[in-house]
TrEMBL record:
Residues 1-29, 490-521 are annotated as: Disordered. SUPFAM superfamilies: Phosphofructokinase. This is ATP-dependent 6-phosphofructokinase. Residues 131-441 form the Phosphofructokinase domain. Pfam families: PFK (PF00365). The keyword Cell wall biogenesis/degradation does not apply. It is an enzyme of class 2 (transferase). GO terms for molecular function: 6-phosphofructokinase activity; ATP binding; metal ion binding. The active site is at D256 (proton acceptor). The lineage of its organism: Eukaryota, Viridiplantae, Streptophyta, Embryophyta, Tracheophyta. Its EC number is 2.7.1.11.
Length: 521
């Protein structure tokens, strides 16, 4: 079916027309770049194929499911701030390559739509009623993103109706909204946390979309991690199913930096910087004592990026333990032997441990609780306290003469919440500003069901499924982990996989937080 025939295949839909819940699964097969709806009513990926293996994984647009929408000239083009800009808008054919390390014969590969202002927009300024919600754990930069969405809407598009949803997803249906103006948000970027509040759990798609409809909201900005983005994709699907002209824009937030595809998430740099303070303190304490050990626990439930980058940045760390790299305590090549050796060599040492590291060791000894938080995330055992205890026990062991193995002093520092509760640093502030403005441009342009984030240094609109399908992890067979090992000189506890057997997933996980295409530079 040609694109022009889409309108006839899609049931007629009213804007904010509650009751137009037409779940007819009109299967519209279009040419390249087309959209189709699956039997379940979900939208299938919009894939455009071009020459030499070029693939665009495009994001949904209102025109995919609402026919005959009027468009308007983008007011940014008349904005005095942009009067000397060589180009105000991005070209609608601009796309961003996912992989930038290529060989001369490589296929061009996957691309995403370049984020930015478009010539035509699908909202008039006074028609827009936007809302912003923050969900999941805290992260430096949340307030900056909120501020810049509000200021972007007001200053770039002349929008006057922006509200905040109080306390995460459940706030949609259980709380009042908070009016947001540039004046209200003027100073919030200097504070940690989120002025809107956040929560885990409470995602009820139907109730949320009912509330969006009842309030007449037509742009929804959703800031949160992997769980939040999954929730956002359900909200988008329901909105599309109801045929509403409501843009759903996701802004990825995660201190753990575990969202795939994107270069890195906002707040990550700030967290790594803040972690230096704890590592420095651990180092000072350890250095001042005979056989001093400083142990620092950092966040990272499934992914050890914070621990890895904080270690690489510090150079005072002797051992970094992350969830992706299993280790063992006893015997030759084990952690205890390494600690003993390092103490004999240097008289002190610093260990950084990610909260998700060594969970299997703790589980072996304790009854697995299987506890979950309100969002269904597995609650971890406290590896920091457990490890402190184990190290102390080991060095208190006595030989046959009753003499202790070694008298050590261990100081345990747990700055986990401190590194995510701080305001974002200067570079994260700039990052958050671009991200927020790109989210606003995307929604104004009629795109929906997308996450905005940098890919190889350029902001792109990425379909939700690419963000939520897997988790980004440290690839321990990658050169970046080897760099860490060579900087700490710690043992690489596990048997390293034969590189010819590295899975495609691991290979793809090899995306940089430093903006380059590969850690294997
Ligand atoms: N699979 C899912 N489907 C729908 N909603 C979800 C899903 N997973 C999580 N959510 C909702 O998203 C919100 C945040 O989820 P979660 O607590 O897992 O944090 P997150 O967004 O992953 O952030 P982080 O883990 O980085 O703190 C919660 O309100 C939760 O109900
Ligand atoms: O905020 P909570 O519920 O204590 O959860 C802490 C978790 O949140 C994260 O900071 C992710 O946001 C993880 O690193 C950590 O395990
Ligand atoms: Mg999460």
């Amino acid at each position: 079916m040609e694109a022009s025939m889409l309108s006839s295949a899609v049931p007629s839909m009213n804007m904010h027309g509650k009751g137009t819940e037409n779940s007819t699964s009109s299967v519209s097969k279009l040419k390249n770049g087309s959209v189709s709806f699956s039997a379940a009513g979900n939208m299938e990926p919009k894939i455009v194929k071009g020459e030499d293996g070029y693939v665009l994984e495009d994001v949904p647009h209102f025109t995919d499911y609402i026919p005959n929408l009027p468009t308007f000239t983008n007011p940014l083009q008349a904005n005095s701030a942009y009067s000397i800009a060589r180009k105000v808008c991005v070209d609608c054919d601009d796309t961003i390559a996912q992989k930038i390390v290529v060989h001369k014969d490589s296929a061009r590969g996957t691309h995403f739509r370049r984020a930015g202002a478009t010539q035509q927009v699908y909202f008039e300024s006074d028609e827009v009623h936007a809302c912003i919600v923050t969900c999941g754990g805290l992260c430096p930069g949340l307030n900056t993103v909120i501020r810049e969405i509000v200021c972007g809407l007001y200053n770039m598009y002349g929008v006057k109706k922006v509200v905040g949803i109080d306390g995460g997803y459940k706030g949609f249906y259980s709380r009042n909204t908070v009016p947001l103006t540039p004046k209200v948000v003027n100073n919030i970027h200097k504070r940690g946390g989120t002025v809107l509040g956040t929560s885990r759990g409470g995602h009820d798609t139907k109730k949320i979309v009912d509330s969006i409809q009842d309030r007449g909201i037509n742009q929804v900005y959703i800031i949160g991690g992997d769980g939040t983005q999954k929730g956002a994709s359900f909200i988008f699907e329901e909105i599309r199913r109801r045929g509403l002209k409501v843009a759903v824009a996701g802004i990825p937030k995660t201190i753990d930096n575990d969202i795939p595809v994107i270069d890195k998430s906002f707040g990550f740099d700030t967290a790594v910087e803040e972690a230096q303070r704890a590592i420095n303190a651990a180092h000072v304490e350890a250095e001042s004592m005979e056989n001093g050990i400083g142990l620092v626990k950092l966040m990272g439930r499934h992914s050890g990026f914070i621990a890895m980058f904080a270690t690489l940045a510090s150079r005072d760390v002797d051992c970094c333990l992350i969830p992706e790299s299993p280790f063992y305590l006893e015997g030759p090549g084990g952690l205890f032997h390494f600690i003993e050796k390092r103490l004999k060599e240097n008289g002190h040492m610093v260990i950084v441990i990610a909260e998700g590291a060594g969970q299997e060791l703790v589980a072996e000894e304790s009854q697995a609780t299987g506890q979950q938080d309100a969002s269904g995330n597995h609650v971890l055992q406290d590896i920091g306290i457990w490890m402190s205890q184990k190290i102390k026990e080991y060095f208190s062991r006595t030989d046959e003469t009753g003499e202790k193995l070694m008298a050590v002093t261990l100081k345990y520092i747990d700055p986990t919440y401190m590194i995510r509760a701080v305001p974002s640093n200067a570079s994260d502030n700039v990052y958050c500003t671009l991200l927020a403005q790109c989210a606003v441009h995307g929604a104004m342009a009629g795109y929906t069901g997308f996450t905005v984030a940098p890919v190889n240094g350029r902001n792109a609109y990425i379909p939700f499924y690419r963000i939520t399908e897997k988790r980004n992890k440290v690839v321990i067979t990658d050169r970046m982990w080897a760099r860490l090992l060579s900087s700490t000189n710690q043992p690489s506890f596990p048997v390293v996989k034969d590189s010819s057997k590295i899975s495609k997933e691991e290979e793809e996980g090899d995306r940089r937080v430093d903006g380059s295409a590969s850690g294997s530079k």
